[in-house]
C-alpha cells in the first residue's frame, strides 16, 4: 500500500507538471497571432491567456472522462500506476524537447501516444480500448483538416465583408477584435487541454482504488486549472515566434480569422468530449487563412516541418513510454 500511495502522489505531481509545461508550451498557440500583429503586448497577452485558461479548465470535465477510460481501462491494469507514471515522463520529455527547439508539437498526441505505449508495454496490445482509442485518433487526425477548411471559410467571409473598406483603418479596428478572439482562444484551450491532466490523475486514483467512478473530483479540477494557469503565465516565446510569423505573415484580419475558426473547432470538440490538439488546430487554421489570402503567401516549408512533427510525435512518445515503463517496472 505504501508503494501504491507513493506512486499515486508521484503521478499527481507529474500530471500537474505536465499541465504546467502544457501551459507555457501550448499557450503560445493561443496568443501568437495577437502578439505578432501587436494587438496585445506579449506580457499582457500571456496574463490574459493565463486567466482565461484557468476559467476554461474549471468549466468542463467531459474530455477528462474520455482520457480516463477510453484509451485503456484503468481497472484492467495490474501495473496501472507505473503505466501512468511512465506515460507522463515520456510526454513531459517530448514537450520539453519540442519547446526547446521552438516546434509547435502536440501535447495531446504526446500524452495519448505515451499512455498507449506504456499500456502495451505492460500488458500487450489487447489492453487497449480500441473503440475509444480509435475515436480519439479520428478526432486528432480529422480536426486539422477541419481547421484548414474553417480558416479558409472565415477568412473568405472577412474578405467579402472588408472588400470596400480602407485596409489600414479596418486592420486598426480588427486589432481590438483580436483581443476578444485571443481571449476566446485561450478559454477554449483551457476547456480541452487542461482536462487531459485531470483525466490522468483520475486514472491514477482509480488504479490505486482511491475512487470507483470516473467523476472528476473538485480538488483535481482546481489543481489542474491552477497548474495550467501558472504555466501559461510563463509563456512560450519560441513557439509564439514560429506560429505567429514563420507560417505566414499575419495581419490583424488574418489573426482574428484564425483565432475565431480554431476556437470554434476546439470548443466543438470539448462539447462532444473529444480531446483534440490545440496546436494542430491553431496552426492548421493559420494555413487555411493564408491559403484564402494567397496560397503562395504560406511558407509551406515551415508548415511541412510542423506536419512532420505531428506525424512522428505519437509513435516516438509511445516508444519512449514503453521503454520508461520497463525501467520503472524493473525497480518498482
Structure, described:
The structure is a single chain. The chain is elongated and about 70 Å long. The two termini are 13 Å apart. The chain has helices spanning 2-36, 42-59, 62-69, 80-100, 107-123, 130-161, 167-207, 218-234, 237-246, 252-271, 278-293, 300-331. Helix 3 (62-69) packs across helix 7 (167-207). It has twelve helices and no strands. By secondary structure, the chain is mostly helical. The protein has one domain.
User: What percent of the residues sit in helical stretches (DSSP H or I)?
Assistant: over 70%
Count of distinct structural domains = 1
Give the SSE order as H and E letters.
Answer: HHHHHHHHHHHH
Q: Mean of the pLDDT scores?
A: 84
Count of extended strands: 0
Parts with pLDDT < 50 across at least 5 consecutive residues: none
Protein name: Inorganic phosphate transporter
Subcellular location: Membrane
Transmembrane segments: 6-24, 45-67, 79-103, 110-130, 136-162, 218-240, 260-286, 307-328
Pfam family, one: PHO4
Amino acid at each position: 500500500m505504501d508503494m501504491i500511495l507513493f506512486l499515486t502522489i508521484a503521478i499527481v505531481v507529474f500530471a500537474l507538471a505536465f499541465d504546467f509545461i502544457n501551459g507555457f508550451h501550448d499557450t503560445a498557440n493561443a496568443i501568437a497571432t495577437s502578439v505578432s500583429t501587436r494587438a496585445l503586448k506579449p506580457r499582457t497577452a500571456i496574463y490574459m491567456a493565463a486567466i482565461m485558461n484557468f476559467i476554461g479548465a474549471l468549466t468542463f470535465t467531459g474530455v477528462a472522462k474520455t482520457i480516463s477510460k477510453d484509451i485503456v481501462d484503468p481497472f484492467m491494469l495490474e501495473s496501472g500506476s507505473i503505466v501512468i507514471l511512465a506515460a507522463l515522463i515520456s510526454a513531459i520529455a517530448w514537450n520539453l524537447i519540442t519547446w526547446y527547439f521552438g516546434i509547435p508539437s502536440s501535447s495531446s498526441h504526446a500524452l495519448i501516444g505515451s499512455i498507449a505505449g506504456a499500456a502495451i508495454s505492460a500488458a500487450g496490445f489487447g489492453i487497449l480500448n480500441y473503440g475509444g482509442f480509435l475515436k480519439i485518433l479520428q478526432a486528432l487526425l480529422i480536426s486539422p483538416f477541419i481547421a484548414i477548411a474553417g480558416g479558409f471559410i472565415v477568412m473568405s467571409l472577412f474578405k467579402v465583408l472588408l472588400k470596400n473598406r480602407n485596409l489600414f483603418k479596418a486592420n486598426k479596428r480588427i486589432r481590438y477584435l483580436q483581443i476578444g478572439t485571443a481571449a476566446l482562444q485561450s478559454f477554449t484551450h483551457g476547456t480541452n487541454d487542461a482536462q487531459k491532466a485531470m483525466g490522468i490523475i483520475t486514472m491514477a486514483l482509480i488504479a490505486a482504488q482511491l475512487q470507483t467512478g470516473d467523476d472528476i473530483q473538485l480538488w483535481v479540477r482546481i489543481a489542474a486549472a491552477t497548474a495550467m494557469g501558472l504555466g501559461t503565465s510563463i509563456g512560450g516565446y519560441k513557439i509564439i515566434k514560429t506560429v505567429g510569423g514563420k507560417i505566414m505573415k499575419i495581419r490583424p484580419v488574418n489573426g482574428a480569422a484564425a483565432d475565431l475558426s480554431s476556437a470554434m473547432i476546439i470548443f466543438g470538440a470539448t462539447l462532444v468530449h473529444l480531446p483534440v490538439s490545440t496546436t494542430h488546430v491553431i496552426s492548421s487554421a493559420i494555413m487555411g487563412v493564408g491559403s484564402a489570402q494567397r496560397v503562395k503567401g504560406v511558407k509551406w516549408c515551415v508548415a511541412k516541418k510542423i506536419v512532420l512533427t505531428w506525424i512522428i510525435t505519437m509513435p516516438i512518445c509511445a516508444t519512449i513510454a514503453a521503454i520508461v515503463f520497463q525501467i520503472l517496472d524493473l525497480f518498482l
